[in-house]
Each structure stands twice: as C-alpha cells, then as structure tokens.
Amino acid sequence: MVETPAITPAEKSLSPDISFDKTHGNHQPAIPGSSLALASLVTVAATSCGGGGGAGGASQTSSAISSTAPSSSIASSSSASALPGSSSTSLSSQPASTSSSSSSSVAPLPVISEAEAARFLLQAQFTATNEEIAAVKAVGYEAWLNTKFNAPIDQTGAQWLTANGHATPKHDGNYFNPVFGDWMAWNQLFTGTGQVRKRLALALSEFFVVSLSPIDGFWPPMLIAGYWDLLNAKAFDNFRNLLEDISLNPAMGFFLNTKGNLKEDVASGRQPDENYAREIMQLFSIGLYELNLNGTVKTSGGNPIETYVQSDITNLARVFTGYDWDYSKVTQQSGFESYPVPSPEFTSGRMKFDANKHSKLAVSFLGTNIPANTSGAEALRIALDALFNHANTGPFFCKQMIQRLVTSNPSPDYVERVSTVFNNNGSGVRGDLKAVWRAILTDTEARGAITGDISGKLREPIVRLTQIARTFNVSSTNGKWEIYDLSNADWGLGQAPLRSPSVFNFFRPGYVPPNTVLAQQALLAPEFQLHNETSTAGYINFMSNFIKDGYSDVKPSVSILESLVLDINALVAWLNLHLTANQLSAATLELIKTALDKTSLTNPDPATAKSNRLYAAILLVVACPEYLIQK
Hints:
Blueprint: H1 38-46, H2 55-58, H3 114-124, H4 130-139, H5 141-149, H6 157-163, H7 179-190, H8 195-205, H9 220-234, H10 239-247, H11 250-255, H12 275-282, E1 299-300, E2 303-304, H13 310-317, E3 323-324, E4 332-333, E5 341-342, E6 352-353, E7 363-365, E8 368-370, H14 376-388, H15 393-405, H16 412-423, H17 433-442, H18 444-447, E9 457-458, H19 461-471, E10 475-476, H20 517-520, H21 533-549, E11 554-555, H22 568-580, H23 586-597, H24 606-622, H25 625-628, E12 629-630
Antiparallel strand pairs: 1-2, 3-6, 4-5, 7-8, 9-12, 10-11
Helix pairs in contact: 3-4, 3-22, 4-5, 5-17, 6-7, 7-9, 8-9, 9-10, 10-14, 12-13, 15-16, 15-17, 16-17, 21-24, 22-23, 22-24
C-alpha cells in the first residue's frame, strides 16, 4: 500500500497548482537537479536538429511556453465562450440524452486548412493522418469529435491480457509479474481506432493517478488494466460517476489504502486510514485553495484561502472504511507452488463493502454533515456529491485538462469558459465530460492563430513515442508487445503509462523550472519537470534506436515515406505537417533539408541508405524544439 503522511494546512504549498508537499515524503516526484535557462533546456535537443544546428528552431521557444490571448477572428465551428452556465450545485450530474453542442447558434462550416486540422488532431489524439485531416476539414471540429464520442470501445486492456494468456496462472509466476501490465499499456496506446478516448484516458490517468509500480500480490497487470479500462469507459461519461468509480476501484483501493480500511477501534486506538480522504480532496476534486471560476486563487488578507483542514480529512476518512477486494467470484486454482492462486475476477469492477467494518460515527466535512449510523452507500453518496458540487471542482479539474491537451498557461478567461461548461453543459447537466472536452478543444484559445512565441506546452514523452508508433504503423513481430517500463531517463523516456513514481504524477501542474526565463515570468511548465540534460540525451538516443530498430519485438515501418526519399522537400513537408502541424520554422526546415541532402543514397547499399535517410529525417524532426513544444 502507498502511504502519504498527513499534511496540516500551514504546511501546504502556496501555489494553487502545486499538488504536492515536502511532508508527503516518498510521494514527492524528483525535481531535476539542473538549473538551466529554458533556452538551454530546449537547445540541448536542438543540437541533433539539422546536423548540429538548430538555432533557428530554438529561437522560437526560448522565452516561455505560456498561452497568450489569441485573435478573436477564429475559424471554429463554435466557441465555448458562448455557452451558458452557472455554478449552481443543484444541476443534474446525469448526461443529457443527447450530447449538447457548445453553441446553439447555427453558423456556416468554417474553412479549415490542413495545418489547422492537423493541429487540432494532435491535441485531441496522438496522430494526424491524411484521412483524419481530410475528415476534420470535411465535417468540422465538433462533428468530428461527436463521431469519436459515439464510437465503441476497442479491445480493453483486460481483454488483451486475457487473450494473450496473461490472466491464466502459469508456472512462471505470471500472476505476480507486473511487466505484463507494461505490455498491455503500450499496446493500448499504440493500437486500436479509439485514439481520442485513449488520449483523454491518458490525461485522466495523470489526474486520478494510480501507479502499477507499488502494486504487489496477485495479478498486478490485471489490476492496472482494470483501472485503465475504467478511465476509458468513463472518459465520455460524467465527472461524478467517474469520481465514484475510481473511489471504489480495486487498484485505487490498493494504491491509496481504501482496501482493507477499517473503522475506528477505541480499545486499540486505531483510526481509519486518512490517505484517500486527503488525496480525493487535494488531488482528485477541489485542491488546496479556494479558486475563482477562472482558476485564480481566492485570498483573504493577501493569503490564499484553504479549502480544508485536518478535521475535514479525519471525518471524511470514516466514509472510506469497510471496503476490500471482492473475492466472492474468485476460484482458487491449485497446482502452483505450495499455495492456491486466485482467479483474477477481483481485479475489475468495484470493491466489496462490509458494513461491520464501516465506521458508524457522524461525519462533518466542508460544511456537509452525515449523521451517525448512515449506511455506507448513502455516506459515500453524500460525500462524493459534496466534492462534486464544490465550487472548486470545475476550475481545478478543467485547468489541468487544458494543460494536458492544449497549453501550460491557459488564460483565466479560457479556464472560466471551460469551467462554466463543467458547471452547466447548456442543458442543466453538471460534470458532462463530453462537453468539457469539446469546450477545451474548440475554444478560441485552442483553435486561434498561434501568436507570439509563448504558447503551447512541452509534449510528454509518452505522447511523442505513441505518435511516432502510430504514425509509422508500429507492429509486434510476435504479438507480445514487449515494451517495458520506460520511466528511466538515462536509457528510456523518463516516463511510462501508469508508472507514476507517486500519486502526484510524473510532473506537477504548477511546476516552474528554477532559474529560467519561465521562472522570471512566473509561467508554468509542468512537463519540464521531466526535462534536463540527462532526459534529453536519453530521449534522443531512445528515439534514434526505436525509429530504426524498434524496441524488443515492436518496430515501426517507414514504408509510408519510401516514395518521398528522393524528394527531400516533399519528405520534410510531409513530416512537418503530420508531426508538427506545419510548426517548424523556415530556418529549421532549411537545416533539416541541408542535413538530409548530405546523406548518401549509395553507401553501404542503396536500399539501406534510403532507409537511413528516412530514419534520419524523422529523428531530426522529433529532436527539434518546435516539435517538442506543441502549440
């Protein structure tokens, strides 16, 4: 189980977005030791761009990566700012029978360029293929999103594990081995048609964090698959439903100690474990400080107003007692070592509730009162309703989802527009996730012209690798998808799906690289917590090997580029559109073309030489600052 020590209000960080504290011990992610300026951070990667040049590319991103107010003349099918909404807590949390549009007005379909379509696609999912670009141009942003919202779920993670024999006990101890969870996670990201669902599930997994790393005992891969499948299943549902499901999920129960959490015992002095009660408030719903609808912090006398105190945690912890894994449908299978192995049914669904182990004491937190002797189900409903309807929940959640998908520094107006949609989707429904995703991805600030050089965010390593894998039709030669935990920055990516080092994700939403231009301008750069000299070198080396030779049994194919190998201009233009949405500067394009023009097509043999040119072209693009910074 994963413990997070108690935190008193006086110890909380003063940043509204920093969801961690030194008092949390091992849960605190490691901060890179580098104190580089931002220009140095990005130009380390640029040394591989254009055969050692890259000054042109670096100049585009060296100042900051925030969002500026875009032009109001936006080519978008609608604007989230036109949505009605209020912060009323009496709104329904049930999705409307039909997914509401973010605007009731009828407007002519805007003309969308290839680059605009590609930019939208790379925010909404992982890739921008010719077919997808054409589809977005043909129907517009909202209609395209609606088709994805209504698409069925692909093969789930648990189904993949089962189909590949990883849910049946074997003498090699597969029921203890977590690596099959890694194989499952990468397979889920690299394959299937439901890219939007999986991209948003990945974003949710970095908000509602559960990590495979500390899970032990029987069937860690199936436990993490059950959690991943839950995020996929609920990605287009309602925040309230998702909050309840993650609270009762078996993997979450292990990770944050609701599994086996017992009521108080006067004789022994035992008290309910407070871990989940703290994190559901601090990280999964309301945050540390009271927020305005636009995400800015409310203050009193110049100090931020705290959302909760220790007594709120202590009281809320009583609600999360009496839960444990459900072994009622488990078959104990013998013949493996000296002990029976349970079948993995307990890894999915919800934990089982035992009323005899549940606290009967009254609960009082955040102004909500739950009478003594309230049933477990009713106490849970009241508590989750209180968190769901809290004024902080919309802006706290929405700002972080904007950061994951669009920009590290959304304007307060952007946050307010999306938070308004969270509070009311236009049909009286609060927490409609479809409406939230639509508001984020079609907002004027997401779809507007890129103005200045301080917009966007650093692409996460997971997203980079998944984009390359999907764009170049990755396949597994033996069907095993043997990609392991790549979170080691020395030789891997410094990040891996469902492998967070703590409940605080790989990076904090309020992280600012110290001693940089970003710090001077008080701008956020969450993903830069993963970025330093070591991780940059590790990333470039890893991608160089992956593009050319793959990883284990998994390898991409460059066949889609073979017809362009003799036309460097066309080759670079294709990569620029599909990988960056035409965001490489003229100077960077020229550097890449010059480097590729110097590659031989005859040595050691024509076929190998042509492939090497294609490998080099891809690597040069993915090492450039203008690729690394997604705008």
